[in-house]
Design brief:
The protein has 335 residues and is an alpha+beta fold. It has 2 domains: 4-190, Thrombin, subunit H; 198-333, Tetratricopeptide repeat domain (Serine Threonine Protein Phosphatase 5, Tetratricopeptide repeat), CATH 1.25.40.10. The protein has 10 helices and 12 strands. The strands form 2 sheets. The chain has a 6-stranded antiparallel β-barrel with strand order 1-2-3-6-5-4. The chain has a 6-stranded antiparallel β-barrel with strand order 7-8-9-12-11-10.
């Protein structure tokens, strides 16, 4: 199977063997053609017992094979082992994709790379061609596996079919926007791709456990995939504070934290927690030095807009009880 960092990749055993990927802690996606149409169940080798499968009513392997999408119940799957789902926009022609398949059941599996060529005749699938002649190519066992963008690591589609020819090294993936047509609940996952990234979940767990170095280790990789996410910069600032009040840090570090939070506020002007954390950092660092508090933008209204969970998060990691903003957040965290 794939490495331990990709526990969201699954081995699915139905009428035939292939792959799948965990999208939520209870739902995975795979290809419908792997599933016995009479049984509508499969095995997932990392989980116990037969798993219920939902297949769109429009799918028929003989007359209407294009949807070829199945939803698998994976209740009991680890909540922090979810596929990093990409946006609904299709990968551009020339984009290099990473693939993983299980052509030999019970073995370690094979990695491959492909390049996006263009749309299929119906427009619902995307054709991919092998990047290099020596690259292991798509064959039975790859179906249902996630195709990830080689640059961002995000899932942009699902492997569905391939030419069974030594000379025609072409295959097809179902892009995310086509997956959405059959599994509309996927839209909720895609609305915040950062929240579904396993590295983000790991970072939050490390932060909650005050393992700040471990949390910091996750952030550069997350930035490569989620540079437009406001919360990424908010949490980066919170991690850099290392559980210590801003007044005890150097001016250089506080400046870096201000820039991170400034970017968080720019990307999400309505982010009350980012604005309030920025205000608290400035209030504590500059206020205790009797310096003008540049850009002080906290007020009672902003604090009231901070969720109780974010307020508790800030109060717990930024111990600055002399600051009015901190006291306001403390009261907010108490409900």
């Amino acid at each position: 199977m794939s490495n331990h960092h990709e526990r969201w990749r699954l081995e699915v055993v139905g009428e035939t063997t292939g792959c799948g990927f965990a999208v939520t802690p209870t739902r995975a996606l795979t290809c419908a053609h792997l599933i016995d149409p009479e049984q509508r169940t499969c095995l997932v080798t990392s989980l116990s017992g037969a798993r219920r499968v939902v297949i769109p009513s429009t799918f028929d392997s003989a007359t209407n094979p294009v949807p070829d999408i199945a939803e698998v119940d994976i209740s009991g799957h680890p909540a922090d082992a979810l596929a990093p789902m990409g946006p609904a926009t299709r990968p551009a022609t020339g984009t290099v994709l990473n693939l993983f398949g299980l052509p030999d059941r019970g073995q370690e599996g094979r990695h491959s790379q492909a390049r996006v060529v263009g749309h299929s005749r119906t427009g619902e699938w995307i054709q991919i061609d092998a990047c290099q002649g020596h690259t292991p190519w798509v064959e039975p066992g790859f179906s249902g596996g996630a195709a990830t963008d080689a640059t961002t690591g995000l899932v942009v589609g699902m492997v569905v079919s391939a030419e069974r020819s030594e000379t025609q090294r072409a295959a097809w993936i179902i892009p995310v926007d086509t997956l959405l047509l059959s599994v509309p609940w996927l839209a909720d996952v895609l609305a915040d791709p950062l929240a579904g990234d396993p590295a983000y979940v790991a970072m939050l767990r490390a932060l909650a456990g005050r393992r700040y170095t471990s949390a910091l280790d996750q952030l550069p990789d997350l930035h490569s995939r989620h540079a437009r996410s406001s919360d990424l910069y908010y949490y980066w600032a919170l991690v850099l504070l290392q559980g210590t009040r801003p007044a005890n840090h150097s001016g250089e570090l506080v400046g870096s934290i201000e820039r991170l939070l400034g970017e968080a506020c720019r990307l999400a002007p309505d982010s009350a927690h980012a604005h309030t954390l920025l205000a608290l950092v400035r209030e504590d660092y500059y206020g205790l030095r009797s310096l003008p508090v540049a850009g002080h933008d906290s007020n009672g209204l902003a604090i009231r807009r901070v969720s109780a969970s974010h307020a508790a998060e800030i109060v717990g990691h930024v111990p600055a009880p002399e600051c009015p903003t901190w006291l306001g957040l403390y009261r907010r965290s108490m409900g």
